[in-house]
Amino acid sequence: MAGRRLREAVKEVMTSGDKDSSSDIHVVIAGLTNTYSQYVTTFEEYQIQRYEGASTLYGPHTLKAYIQEFKKLASSLISDEPVEAGPQPPDLLEKQISLLTPVVLDATPLGASFGDCKSDVPADSTFRQGDVVTVTFWSACPRNDLMTEGTYALVEIFVKSTNNWEPAYDDDDWCLKFKWSRPSKLSARSYATIEWQIPDEAVSGVYRITHFGASKPLFGSVNRFTGSCSAFTVT
Q1: Nearest-angstrom CA–CA distance, 94 and 112
Q2: Are strands 205-215 and 223-228 parallel, antiparallel or unpaired?
Q3: How far apart are alpha carbons 203 and 127 in whole angstroms?
Q4: Which end of the chain has the smaller Cβ count within 10 Å, N or C?
């Protein structure tokens, strides 16, 4: 109901009261979930104080406030007038309390570097659709870099025409799993196991699995690293 009332208010402004043109306008609300303002309910629903009403943070007139501001935005859109930025919510990141222990140090065994294979695929190996390819890399705590808009794991295919490795699957795909493990809580060593269950639609070719991460030294900022396994064939 809150959404219907908001859409009707915006539509009224966009048509400027002209009912004949109202059928040509369709208002869509595209909102994000779990964001700053949480739920927005009608005045009536707020009085009942069920789940959504009790989670409307800014009081019973929240919807009216939204309608007021969206009508202003719609009017500015029609008249092509600039809109001044309103007050910004306070940045409370430095005041947030985290119960996670910080990452103190990441390390690898002597002779190994971050991104090196702890367990590689067999040399000149060949797999088929439905097989599972497993590779383990010496890695670091994933909390050092959450890889926002990126990936911890990537399956690449070699393209002969460009002589380059190109992305085929990443950790958005169900067929690719990224598993991080620190065997000993008191150890700075950890590793990442990447499993790729080759889907039926995977094309034949030469592939490799690449791991992206970031390690934290005892002093200084984190260092990003990349490692790839040996090439293998999918037939």
Answers
A1: 36
A2: antiparallel
A3: 12
A4: C
Q: Report the C-alpha gap between 125 and 235 in whole angstroms.
A: 11
2-5 LR contacts (CB < 8 Å, sep 24+): 2/40, 2/41, 2/42, 2/45, 2/63, 3/29, 5/42, 5/63, 5/67
Helix axis angle, 2-15 relative to 62-79, nearest 10°?
30
User: Beta strand 190-197 with 205-215: parallel, antiparallel or unpaired?
Assistant: unpaired
- The pLDDT tens digits for 95-134 are 888 888 889 999 999 999 999 999 999 999 999 999 999 9
What integer pLDDT is reported at residue 101 of this predicted model? 83
The answer to whether the annotation marks 36 as part of a ligand binding site is: no
Structure tokens at 171: 């950790």
pLDDT, averaged across the chain: 92
Please give the pLDDT value at position 96.
Answer: 84
Q: E strands of the chain, at which residues?
A: 117-119, 126-127, 132-139, 153-159, 164-170, 176-181, 190-197, 205-215, 223-228, 232-234
